């Protein structure tokens, strides 16, 4: 990579663009020593983002602010912090001074202030205060219950419920998902490892093979991107003959249930229909596949090293694991694979790129070209990137 000389043109650009520059240490700008100035394209789907994050301290701080915004129902602010964090994740080296960020997109005044604080003193007072805040801690604990969203958690906090103990004591009405979430709280908040994901995969493959011979099971989500742990395990299931996958989910679920693998499940049926003249609705809806949100009862095998094994009661015979299953017709498989591999921000950026730069509409089902008023077919992720005019980015580099 070319090392640039210290370039301050961005500084004057920032002034013209009205970006806050008071956060800069003017003194440093006058220094003439060589410092690499980073630059990276503005959409996350134009960048290669591996799991090697050289700026974890900065991105952790920004991600916490993003999380807090999301938990407070401020999605716009959340996305802004996610974009800022993602831009830093793509840099090849640790940032040591603010002046290196000249060509890095998506850094607003708030993000720059946080970055400055962390670079100068190792921490951001705002982020540290947030970490300690009772409200933030309560939001984390309560939304950490499977089935509890931001609104419910906010309502409970308004009623003075800040902890699991207070929740159990006050006994609010819980739905079926929330009861399962509370019952398996510790397990579901313990990261799932790759070996456990593989064990779940073996179960799902056995189920699919038994109820629909020839069905294909693909690990998606974070594990497909190479992550070592996840909050759940995600699978996409299809069959090479179009139409054979219809009605698969109920059969799969009843097989899993009959074998004792399910602690909880909720299935949504497929509601996606391609309109002849174009997408009937904005295609960002994630819920139009046959999809099952479940909690698996996964037998703990010796050697898999479940962190919950041991402790007072000795090794436990099983743990609860969140598992998401999606069934796709093979004609939509490439779109589903691309749409469910993530990361969430990478997906969001792909859709934004498609809409803003290509006048297309991308979903996990299809790609519609508004200029040509037609759907663009694809049988691989590579073809979809090509339709979008993007360089192909493999899953391991979609960790934005
Ligand atoms: N997804 C998305 N937008 C959402 C939710 C999900 O694009 N709002 C896609 C991207 C990832 C995939 O679905 C699976 O979702 P998660 O399991 O939540 O994400 P993950 O990357 O697998 O994260 P984790 O490793 O924590 O499970
Ligand atoms: Mg996942």
UniProtKB/TrEMBL annotation:
Would the keyword Transferase be found if you checked this record's keyword annotation? yes
TM ranges: none
What cofactor does this chain's UniProt record say it requires? Answer: Mg(2+)
Summarize where Mg(2+) binds, as residue positions: 232, 234, 324
One GO BP annotation here? double-strand break repair via nonhomologous end joining
GO molecular function list: DNA binding; DNA-directed DNA polymerase activity; metal ion binding
Q: Which reaction does it catalyse?
A: DNA(n) + a 2'-deoxyribonucleoside 5'-triphosphate = DNA(n+1) + diphosphate
Q: What class of enzyme is it?
A: transferase
Sorted keywords for this record are:
Magnesium, Metal-binding, Nucleotidyltransferase, Nucleus, Transferase
Cellular component (GO) terms are: nucleus
Query: Where does the UniProt annotation locate this protein?
Result: Nucleus
- What's its EC? 2.7.7.7
What role does it play? Template-independent DNA polymerase which catalyzes the random addition of deoxynucleoside 5'-triphosphate to the 3'-end of a DNA initiator. One of the in vivo functions of this enzyme is the addition of nucleotides at the junction (N region) of rearranged Ig heavy chain and T-cell receptor gene segments during the maturation of B- and T-cells. Gap-filling polymerase involved in repair of DNA double-strand breaks by non-homologous end joining (NHEJ).
Give the UniProt family note. Belongs to the DNA polymerase type-X family.
Name of the molecule in the record: DNA-directed DNA/RNA polymerase mu
Q: Which organism is it from?
A: Gasterosteus aculeatus aculeatus (three-spined stickleback)
Q: Which residues of the full protein are shown?
A: 107 to 506 of 506
């Amino acid at each position: 990579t070319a090392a640039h000389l210290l370039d301050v043109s961005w500084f004057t650009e920032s002034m013209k663009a009205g970006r806050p520059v008071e956060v800069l240490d003017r003194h440093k700008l006058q220094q003439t020593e060589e410092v690499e100035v980073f630059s990276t394209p503005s959409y996350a789907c134009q960048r290669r983002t591996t799991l090697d994050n050289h700026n974890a301290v900065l991105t952790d701080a920004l991600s916490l602010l993003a999380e807090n915004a999301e938990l407070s129902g401020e999605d716009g602010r959340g996305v802004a912090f996610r974009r800022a964090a993602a831009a830093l994740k793509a840099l090849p080296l640790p940032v040591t001074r603010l002046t290196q960020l000249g060509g890095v997109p998506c850094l607003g005044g708030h993000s720059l202030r946080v970055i400055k604080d962390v670079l100068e003193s190792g921490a951001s007072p705002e982020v540290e205060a947030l970490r300690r805040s009772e409200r933030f801690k309560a939001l984390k604990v309560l939304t950490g219950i499977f089935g509890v969203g931001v609104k419910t958690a906010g309502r409970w906090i308004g009623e003075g419920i800040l902890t699991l103990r207070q929740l159990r004591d006050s006994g609010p009405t819980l739905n079926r998902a929330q009861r399962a979430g509370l019952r398996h709280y510790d397990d579901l908040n313990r990261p799932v490892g790759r070996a456990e994901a593989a064990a779940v995969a073996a179960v799902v493959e056995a189920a699919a093979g038994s109820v629909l011979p020839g069905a294909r099971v693909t690990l998606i989500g974070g594990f497909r991107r190479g992550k070592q742990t996840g909050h759940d395990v995600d699978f996409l299931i299809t069959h090479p003959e179009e139409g054979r996958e219809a009605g698969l989910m109920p059969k799969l679920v009843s097989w899993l249930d009959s074998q004792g693998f399910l602690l909880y499940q909720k299935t949504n049926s497929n509601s996606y229909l391609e309109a002849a003249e174009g997408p009937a609705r904005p295609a960002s809806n994630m819920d139009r596949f046959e999809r099952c949100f479940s909690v698996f009862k996964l037998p703990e095998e010796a050697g898999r090293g479940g962190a919950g094994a041991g402790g007072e009661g000795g090794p436990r015979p099983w743990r609860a694991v969140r598992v998401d299953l999606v069934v796709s017709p093979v004609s939509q498989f490439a779109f589903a694979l691309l749409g469910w591999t993530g990361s969430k921000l990478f997906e969001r950026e792909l859709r934004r790129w498609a809409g803003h730069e290509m006048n297309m509409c991308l979903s996990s089902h299809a790609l519609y070209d508004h200029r040509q008023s037609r759907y663009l077919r694809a049988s691989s992720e590579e073809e979809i990137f090509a339709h979008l005019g993007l360089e192909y980015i493999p899953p391991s580099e979609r960790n934005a």
